[in-house]
Design brief:
This is Lysophospholipid acyltransferase family protein. InterPro entries: Plipid/glycerol_acylTrfase. It comes from Gordonia prachuapensis. The chain has 233 residues and is an alpha/beta fold. The protein has nine helices and nine strands. β3, α4 and β4 form a beta-alpha-beta unit. The protein starts with a helix and ends in a 12-residue tail after the last helix.
């Protein structure tokens, strides 16, 4: 109930005023049945504007930090993210990643739409980064279609590090479903998983027009800052 209350009453009208969103290719999302929405990831607001513009409910995997806060703020975050369909995952290791993929499979087996970000984290600079193979593993295991989604200008409305949104024109582009039935029985093959992932990332690049960078976004974010030199100073 809260999901639709936020979408149509509490948050949706405000988001529409701030982002003046429009959607292209909505007909590519099936009216029923499971599918993975594979989206680029520019800002936190991606997880708000995509559900706002799609009729069906979408479930997302969300980092567990959103559910572990303390005090009144932490309690509100836990309630809010649970109410809007976010599923907490621990991203700190291989076992945690396996748990996240299991959670995604469970939603798909129930016939739901699963929103996933193959880059694994938000883009630090607006470019499209190398995809991780977890999404491909889920797609191959379940046989569900993968629908590419390009979120455009959410990073202008919600730049990294900001809390208060800024007015911008949001566009959501939905691409044609990708069918990987030709790889049936090949799940678990890391070369096939990489090929599927790269095909998804290529479609995202074509759909959204982002510059592609063949490294993981997380590795760039975690790279230590270079010490300044007298010349640089």
């Amino acid at each position: 109930m809260w999901y639709y209350t936020f979408k149509f009453v509490l948050l949706g009208p405000i988001l529409r005023v701030l982002g003046r969103p429009r959607i292209e290719g909505l007909e590519n999302i099936p009216d029923r049945g499971p599918a993975i929405l594979a989206s680029n990831h520019l800002a936190v607001m991606d997880s708000f504007y995509l559900p706002l513009m799609v009729r069906r409910r979408i479930y997302f995997l969300a980092k567990s930090e959103y559910f572990t806060g303390t005090g009144a703020k932490g309690a509100f975050q836990r309630w809010f993210f649970s109410a809007v369909g976010q599923i907490p995952i621990d991203r700190s290791g291989a076992e945690a990643a396996a748990g996240a993929l299991t959670a995604a499979r469970r939603q798909l087996e129930a016939g739901h739409l699963m929103g996933m970000y193959p880059e694994g984290t938000r883009s630090p600079d607006g470019r499209l980064y190398k995809g991780k193979t977890g999404l491909a593993r889920v797609a191959l295991d379940t046989g569900v279609p993968v629908i590419p989604v390009a979120m455009i200008n959410t990073d202008k409305l919600n730049p990294p590090g900001t809390v208060i949104p800024r007015p911008a024109r949001i566009v959501v582009k939905i691409g044609k479903p990708l069918d990987f039935a030709r790889y049936e029985g090949m799940q678990g093959n890391r070369f096939i998983e990489r090929a599927v992932t790269d095909e998804i990332m290529y479609e995202l690049m074509q759909l959204g027009g982002q510059q592609y960078v063949d490294i993981y976004a997380a590795s760039l974010k975690n790279k230590p800052a270079e010490p300044s030199t007298p010349a640089a100073a």
